[in-house]
Amino acid sequence: MTETTLLVSKIRNGTVIDHISGGYALDVVKILGITGKTNGIVLIAMHVPSKQLGLKDIVKVEGRELEPEEVDKIALLAPGASINIFRNYQVMDKKRVKLPSSIRGIVKCGNPACISNSNEPVQTQFYVKSQEPLMIRCHYCSFLMEKEDILKQF
Ligand code: CTP
Ligand code: ZN
Questions:
Q1: Staple partner for 135: which of 34, 45, 102, 130, CB 3.0–4.6 Å?
Q2: Which domain holds residue 27?
Q3: Do both 33 and 78 map to the same domain?
């Protein structure tokens, strides 16, 4: 997209989550804990034409950098997303999120009988069985979870 057709303005300091697969912007906003009550500028663009993705979403958050756990969660629902950090309009850091082959501690197993849901101090762990559509398998009980199940927890 050229400057003349820029949909939402640039931000001075903060984070731009770009190349979010079309339709997931509001889930990203939720992961970041942004509600209407939060301070700071938040710009959301949905279903923007993109050469690589067809349609993409963008979320821009002024005055904020992301926690590693937030980045890991975004990787689960928008594996192609890029995270750009700007200070005084200059790019400071630019990286692609990466879906790890093993996901620890971010997702709760949906099987109530799983040992990770007992009182044992066991950290949840899943393996990626399929990336598209996303399917992850519990290390302990082999329970399968898909993107929609994961999104409900965020
Ligand atoms: N952006 C912004 N504020 C800035 C600079 C850039 O909101 N001060 C946004 C741009 O609108 C774009 C994203 O951040 O959505 C990445 O911009 P840029 O770093 O200029 O990279 P591009 O070449 O546009 O894209 P790519 O990520 O493919 O390199
Ligand atoms: Zn399990």
A1: 130
A2: 14-96
A3: yes
Tokens of 16: 């731009």
Q: Indicate which CATH number applies to the domain containing 129.
A: 2.30.30.20
Distance CA 48, CA 7 (A): 9
The set of protein residues with a Cβ atom below 6 angstroms from ligand 1 is 10-11, 16, 18, 58, 60, 82, 84, 86, 89, 91
pLDDT of amino acid 54:
87
Q: Which atom of ligand 1 has the smallest separation from the CA of 18?
A: 15
Residue ending a domain, among 72, 96, 120, is 96
Residues 20, 86 within the same domain: yes
CA–CA separation, 62 and 15 (whole Å): 6
Domain count of the fold of the chain: 2
pLDDT in tens, 63-76: 999 999 999 999 99
> Which strand (E) or helix (H) includes residue 108?
none
75-133: pLDDT as tens digits: 999 999 999 999 999 999 999 999 989 999 999 999 999 999 999 899 999 999 998 89
pTM of the model: 0.90
pLDDT value for 4: 56
135: which strand partners?
A: 130, 146
Best of 15, 16, 20, 51 for a ligand 1 pocket test (most atoms within 8 Å of beta carbon) = 16
Q: Give the residue, by CA position, lying nearest to ligand 1 atom 11.
A: 10
